[in-house]
Design a protein that fits this description.
alpha/beta; eight-stranded mixed beta sheet; binds nicotinamide-adenine-dinucleotide
């Protein structure tokens, strides 16, 4: 079995799908790994480290011609010309991928979408959404702290005493819980909120307060553990709760998301205008439109003295560790797909079936996870 690792071409993408430590394990298990020259450079994994791990460093067309081709983001459709019929491509596929799906079907390249790993215990170690959301939640707090006009911790110094910052984290899924833990470590007084009832206990267990238990919806959670879109009345309760707390917050990290839908709007312009000048909002959901009405994806704007950061691809900014976590997820997936030394796609399998968007020349219709 030949595993190919591609160099990323998307703007702002600094990660690599397999790092040298993951390559070592795959080579030990009998695989041949071919890595495109320079694939790991922006994640600080150089070609020599891949060679030392037992990989061959090759030109792009050779890496694309492997049995299993790994990338962080879906490659340009033109790159698929080098893939062979019957090969499998694993990558984050994302929205608006019709041309890629058609190209895979035409070339009989099987396509597994990494963001579609089911949220089940058995698949936890392959769950790229979770590993990368962990990175995003951590980095969002650091961005917010460095843009803030005040310390996060309480300080008692000869130059006076300073009160701790108040942080509000909206959405307490994987990214939100990591943001809560990080803001707490930096000394902020943290309040968290989520519409899913199960999140309240997790917020409290991290030593944060839980905002407005009355705004939690009993039926907000799908079978897969995700949130659903809220009914208007429930959404109104959430907006009231957020509006009531945001004016006292120095740092807001918003991570609320609904799979396959635009990010829920939780912070209006009027709410921002109640905040103190010098406060910061980091909108982790900027990529899907943002939780704040004033967020501009990829930019930082200042409104009434409040800085609103709309970061894109936060995991990529911590390229080494994000890649290591990504690679561990991909390596576990490869082990799952491998039968007697070869990649075997069993689309009746709960994990493989949920991820497979193109199989044997045909697109597979997929509902929401
Ligand atoms: P996500 O990125 O889709 O959403 C982030 C958070 O936003 C979620 O917690 C969601 O409830 C919240 N949210 C949505 N609408 C909101 C609103 N209007 N107001 C406030 N919050 C809102 O989700 P995620 O972080 O990827 O995962 C969510 C949950 O799924 C996890 O906390 C966990 O319970 C479960 N999960 C399970 C597994 C597993 O079992 N393997 C793996 C990962 C996640």
């Amino acid at each position: 079995m030949r595993i190919g690792v591609l160099k990323e071409t998307a703007p702002r993408e600094r990660r690599v799908a397999l790092t040298p430590d993951a390559v070592t394990k795959l080579v030990k298990a009998g695989a041949t790994v071919v890595v495109e020259r320079g694939a790991g450079a922006s994640a600080h994994c150089d070609d020599a480290a891949y060679a030392a791990a037992g990989a061959e460093v090759v030109e792009a067309s050779v890496a694309r011609g492997a049995d299993l081709v790994c990338a962080v983001q879906r490659p340009e459709p033109a790159a698929l010309a080098d893939c062979r019929a019957g090969a499998t491509l694993v990558a984050l596929v994302g929205q608006g991928a019709d041309v890629t799906l058609a190209a895979c079907a035409e070339r009989k390249v099987n396509l597994l979408a990494l963001e579609r790993v089911p949220r089940i215990t058995r698949a936890q170690s392959m769950d790229i959404l979770s590993s990368q959301a962990t990175v995003a939640g951590y980095k969002a707090v650091l961005l917010g702290a460095s843009a803030a006009s005040r310390f996060l911790p309480m300080l008692t110094t000869a130059a006076g005493s300073l009160t701790p910052a108040k942080a509000l984290v909206l959405g307490a899924g994987v990214a939100g819980l990591q943001a809560i833990a990080t803001a707490r470590r930096l000394g902020a007084v943290v309040t968290g909120f989520d519409v899913r009832a199960a999140a309240a206990e997790q917020v409290l267990s991290l030593g944060a307060k839980f905002l407005a238990p009355e705004a939690v919806a009993g039926d907000a959670e799908t079978k897969g553990g995700y949130a659903k879109e809220l009914a208007d009345e429930q959404q109104q309760k959430v907006l009231e709760a957020v509006g009531g707390a945001i004016a006292q917050s120095d740092l807001v990290i918003s991570t609320a998301a609904i799979p396959g839908r635009p990010a829920p709007r939780l912070i209006t312009a009027a709410m921002v205008e109640t905040m103190k000048a010098g406060s910061v909002i980091v909108d982790v959901s900027a990529e899907t439109g943002g939780n704040c009405e004033l967020t501009v994806p990829g930019e930082t704007v200042v409104h009434h003295g409040v800085t609103i950061i709309g970061p894109l691809n936060l995991p990529s900014t911590l390229s080494l560790h994000a890649s290591q976590m990504f690679a561990r997820n991909v390596q576990t997936l490869i082990e799952h797909l491998r039968k007697e030394g070869e990649i075997v796609l069993d689309i009746t399998d709960e994990i493989t079936g949920a991820m497979c968007l193109v199989y044997d020349g045909a697109s597979r219709q997929q509902g929401a996870a």
